[in-house]
Design the sequence.
């Protein structure tokens, strides 16, 4: 895991395609703006985990597409 320090207004560029910009810092919360190509799926990790748990409970298994998205997030 790479850990960086950024100030408000500073950005990170990932693979020359995705920009993560720190837009606001207030107490223990950080607001992040994300600019990425439209075909990229950007999901909150806790949302993926909730969907994963709900689908597993409902069907006994998780669809392959969701597993691939979760695997990418965990990296």
Sequence:
């Amino acid at each position: 895991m790479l850990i960086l320090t950024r100030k408000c207004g500073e950005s990170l560029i990932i693979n020359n395609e995705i920009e993560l910009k720190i837009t606001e810092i207030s107490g223990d919360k950080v607001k992040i703006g994300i600019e990425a190509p439209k075909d990229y799926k950007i999901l909150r990790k806790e949302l993926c985990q909730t969907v994963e748990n709900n689908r597993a409970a409902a069907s006994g298994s998780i669809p392959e597409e969701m597993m691939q998205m979760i695997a990418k997030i965990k990296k």
The mean pLDDT is 85.
